[in-house]
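Posting for a labmate who doesn't have an account.
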Amino acid sequence: MALVLGLNLLPVSVAGFFSLPDLVEEVRAFRSAAECGDLGEAEGQEWEGWDCLGPAHATVRSVVIKKKAKSSEFKVFLNGPDGVPDELSFNGDSPVLEFLEPGDRVRVTMWRHYAVAITHDGLTQATNDDPEGLPEVSTGLMLVLLTAGGCLVWLGGHLTVSARDVAAYGPPLFYPALGRGAVWVSLEAVPAGLAGAAVSRFAESPAAGPVVTAGVWLVLALVTVLVLLRREFLRREAPGTGRGRRARR
């Protein structure tokens, strides 16, 4: 089962890496987008495919502003033409969201299928709906799938080859260490992705984000593996540790 699952995850991760150039190109196109004409209240407007920043108009239905220590929520709900999202989220309530009230008219800046900003009374606030960060998120996710797939293939292969020993002596002592290592290496995709996203926003090329994400993850993964190997070595060499057949496996 582990072998089959791992063999399914590995092709998915490889396919995801091949999709990264398209995501990077989308970010590059977004950054270079210029403004286009006012497409107004057009019904049935197909926004996807527009490579310019086109304004649409919508009416505020409600506003949600929740400021909490651990988790905050900043959202606006809209009534607008087809293609404009009914709900938009933000990183904060300034400079526009805090002044919005139900019934206010706002201009929504659209790019392809993204609603990237809203404008009211001459003030503009960016939304969370843009392609920035998607290459880094995809890179991190594919690294997690690659780690899980590789460990499952290795584990499944070992179980297949050593089925008799496992049945006779139980699972080898390194199995828990392998599981812990896989979990830690997978979690390290999160700080790696954050580092990549931070670099990408200031780099001239959006391709820097996935490269930094993969590089930081590789360094963290190597450190984790070395630490776990050292702990496993010290555990086996500790006085009183069994040195029989099962201990050596």
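Reply:
Got it, the structure tokens are right above this. The radius of gyration is 25 Å.
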